[in-house]
Design goal:
Elements: H1 15-27, E1 34-38, E2 45-47, H2 48-61, H3 72-81, H4 86-89, H5 99-114, H6 119-134, H7 138-157, H8 161-165, H9 170-177, H10 180-183, H11 185-200
Antiparallel strand pairs: 1-2
Helix pairs in contact: 2-3, 2-7, 3-6, 3-7, 6-7, 7-11
């Protein structure tokens, strides 16, 4: 939990508001968390804040392809907060062997960071974050689509940069991303076509 004496804006005159401002300052650190995928133009590596912004736009733009009716506001909250835990836990490569260990650290991070807020907002964000992680609702399943789709698009546009650098194969990509179909069968069909093209072009080993 946040230290009561550590408030940056302790002059605001409203303790709840002070906590909210401190939370905003804390999660701004997400801009310093560098991901393993490059931007679409290959100019540099993406950070977590940019990832969250991009997939938020994608979710709104492509909501017509959901397998079911969704609450898009809830989806947006999920994609905006899902990587906040990486402020503490860091970014873990999707195909890393220690990814399960990373989930333990992310749970601790969620408790600390969302714990900076008053109980009502703390519980709301924690529950929404857990809902996304567990993929137990339609909104979580649809949010998952874009968390996984964006790096697939990045790799395709960058000729398999991250795939080739880390010896990732088509079967590995399919295994880690096939749950996209649970949120959008239409988008998953597109992904399969894109991966076939990636193999044909030498971006992704068969």
């Amino acid at each position: 939990m946040a230290n009561e004496a550590s408030a940056v804006f302790d002059f605001a005159g409203n303790r709840r508001f002070e906590k909210q401002l401190d939370f905003i300052v804390e999660i701004d650190k997400i801009k310093n968390i560098i991901r393993k995928s490059q931007l679409f133009d290959g100019g540099r590596f993406e950070n977590d804040a940019e990832h969250s912004w991009t997939i938020s736009i994608m979710a709104v733009l492509l909501k017509e392809y959901a397998n079911f009716q969704i609450n898009i506001e809830k989806v947006l909250i999920m994609v905006l907060i899902h990587d906040i835990v990486e402020v503490d836990a860091g970014d873990t490569f999707l195909y890393a062997e220690d990814r399960e260990i990373a989930h333990i650290e992310e749970k601790k991070a969620a408790q600390r960071i969302f714990g900076m807020l008053d109980a009502d907002q703390r519980d709301f964000f924690l529950e929404t974050w857990r809902e996304f992680e567990e993929g137990r609702t339609n909104e979580a399943r649809f949010a998952f689509v874009f968390d996984r789709l964006e790096p697939l698009l990045q790799n395709f546009l960058n000729k398999g940069y991250t795939w080739r650098k880390n010896n990732i194969t088509r079967s590995m990509v399919l295994e880690k991303n096939s749950k996209i179909r649970e949120g959008s069968q239409e988008i998953w069909s597109f992904v399969e076509i894109m991966l076939d093209l990636a193999v044909q072009r030498g971006y992704l080993p068969e």
